[in-house]
């Protein structure tokens, strides 16, 4: 399994029809940070990854590993 955090977060966010701005607000971060994460420019901290997973109703593993690889 390969790491693909940005792609997985974007996919889950779109499944819930959330804009980056809304995910950022709910996860207590900035829309720019969500954008950077989704484009693999930055990696989220463990704490932020946990908050994003809570908002997207999934596990951290769901966001970290690309199960389709």
Structure commentary:
59% of the residues lie in helices and 6% in strands. The protein contains five helices and two strands. The protein has helices spanning 5-15, 20-26, 31-38, 46-55, 60-64, and strands at residues 2-3, 65-66. A two-stranded antiparallel sheet has the order 1-2. The protein is globular and about 25 Å long. The N and C termini lie close together (6 Å).
Write out key terms for the chains shown.
mainly alpha; 2 strands; 5 helices; 69 residues
The side-by-side strand order for the widest beta sheet comes to 1-2
For the terminal residues, how far apart are their CA atoms? 6 Å
The total of helices stands at 5
3D shape: globular
Radius of gyration, in angstroms, nearest whole number: 11 Å
Question: Mean of the pLDDT scores?
Answer: 93
Ranges where pLDDT stays below 50 over 5 or more residues in a row are: none
For the report, how would you describe the main beta sheet? Answer: 2 strands, antiparallel
Oligomeric status of the shown chains?
single chain
């Amino acid at each position: 399994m390969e790491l693909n955090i940005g792609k997985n977060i974007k996919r889950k966010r779109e499944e819930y029809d959330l804009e980056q701005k809304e995910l950022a607000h709910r996860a207590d971060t900035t829309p720019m940070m969500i954008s950077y994460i989704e484009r693999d420019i930055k990696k989220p901290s463990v704490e932020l990854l946990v908050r994003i997973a809570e908002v997207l109703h999934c596990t951290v593993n769901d966001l970290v590993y690309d199960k389709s690889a």
